[in-house]
Design brief:
Layout: E1 3-6, H1 16-24, H2 31-35, E2 45-49, E3 52-56, H3 65-69, E4 75-77, E5 83-85, H4 95-99, H5 128-131, E6 138-141
Antiparallel strand pairs: 1-6, 2-3, 4-5
Length: about 140
Amino acid sequence: MKRIYVNEEWCLGCHLCEYNCAFANSGEKDMVKALKDREISPRVQVEERGNIHFAVSCRHCEEPLCMKACIAGAIYRGEDGAVCIDRDKCVGCCTCVLVCPYGAVAPSAEGAALKCELCLQNACGQPACVSGCPNGAIVYEER
């Protein structure tokens, strides 16, 4: 299965991956309308440790702890292999947030947890964070 990988040596810490992710998952067709004067909720987060920057996103584990821990059965593996959250089933207990060893699941203001679902429904055929990275630090490939 293809996954997102980050080369922290190339990451500039520009946070464009976060903005592209938030836009791709906003349901809007215009980035300005989707993001201007709003708090964004990206499913990828740029972390900084000293002068090293890297994006944190779901690893779509072979045996996802978040899926095993979900008390509502809201986390499932999609047809493409991506680990996804059914926002209608999620009760917002945040157990998945606590058990993810990578810190890739986050609570949202709407109640349901958020995580990268690879946004493969996009017209470009790859996750928005990958296509929006100006330095090519984020790649979508099979290893």
